[in-house]
Amino acid sequence: MSHAPTQELKPVVLHRPALPAAAAPAATWPLEDVLALFDLPFTDLMFRAQQSHRLNFPDGDVELATLLSIKTGGCEEDCGYCPQAARYDTGVEAKKILDIETVLDAARQARDNGATRFCMGAAWRSPKQRDMVKVEEMVREVKALGLETCATLGMLEEGQANRLKEAGLDYYNHNLDSAPEFYDSVISTRAYQDRLDTLGRVREAGLKVCCGGIVGMGETRMQRAGLIAQLANLNPYPESVPVNHLVQVEGTPLFGMDPLDPFEFVRTIAVARITMPKARVRLSAGRRQMGEAVQAMCFLAGANSIFYGDKLLTTDNPEAGDDRMLLDKLGLTTRAAMLERVQQSACGG
Ligand code: SAM
Ligand code: DTB
Ligand code: SF4
User: Fold this and answer.
1) Which of 47, 96, 223, 268 is the most exposed place for a label (fewest CB within 10 A)?
2) Confidence at residue 6, expressed as pLDDT on a 0 to 100 scale
3) Cα–Cα dist 270/250, whole Å
4) Residue 38 maps to a domain
5) Burial (CB count within 10 angstroms: exposed 0-12, middle 13-18, buried 19+), residue 55
6) Domains of the chain: total
7) 316: left (phi over 0), alpha (psi -120 to 50) or beta
8) pLDDT tens digits for 251-265?
9) Residue 233: inside a domain, yes or no?
10) Contact between 219 and 38 (Cβ < 8 Å)
11) Is 211 an annotated catalytic residue?
């Protein structure tokens, strides 16, 4: 699919209060400026997000990332949204770490279905030494299948990030989850600073950072802006930004929360796109509850990645076939199709 050439995009004068110019990668985003974006009239915000998206992603493809829970349940942490925390009665059973063949079968299937990234998630506070050996083997073998690799294993000690990098890991996912001011009402077993420290170690090791958060946990708009400001002010900002909508799971403390206005979710995506213009912004958990029209608005707002496959970690995601139909309906192309086209034209085909 071809988009209008980016050079034809004219700067647009909005008759609104002055806003910061389009962000350069090193720019910092004061909270007031992020909040000013959230406060824009919806159509103005969407327009700015579209401008940023098309300038920075002229191909307009959507990345498909498949998740696999390599170690499910029984987690010692108390994250108030999470069905895998042992202390909440959610019906998620604690399982052992998967064996390598199970992981590779899932990765091959993901690749054959068109995913380009494979993300392995574990319900750990942090990985133990014996876990690291197994995860390193998974990373090496999944990478050898030609997939981009991502892992989310909790907090990393010094040295662990380096080992993952040496094994061939491309991305490490570790979310800030919320604004610092809201964080303590959701999680008490690890501090915001612990998360920032892990992100620092991930960067130091030369891994790419996948870092985002969850909205719909009862936070205010100011706190949603606070989350985005934290992410956008990481230097550099993350290469991948998963924006999760809370999936409410019975038994967790956040079950029964008043639902978030879907436009606020779309706004969060748009503000992430504007403030982190070159990041892959992933429309992450919560798509099943969202419906096609809200998802389409998220793509318009600049989302260009989704979790693809019938399951997230423990909860349901849309069926892969339904996702393919939705992308087709919207005329969106996938990263895999895009890369194939580039390869064919390089071979003169
Ligand atoms: N245990 C590791 C950790 O917490 O870093 C990795 C796995 S954890 C499940 C990864 C992320 O999933 C969390 O940081 C959170 O952002 C997201 N998540 C967990 N439960 C969720 C839910 N019910 N709805 C939306 N996102 C959720
Ligand atoms: C992320 O930001 N979202 C994914 C992934 N990173 C690991 C996890 C979503 C989990 C949703 C709840 C579940 O399925 O257990
Ligand atoms: Fe454990 Fe991660 Fe769930 Fe928190 S989000 S309870 S650390 S699996």
Assistant:
1) 96
2) 39
3) 30
4) yes
5) middle
6) 1
7) beta
8) 999 999 999 999 999
9) yes
10) no
11) no
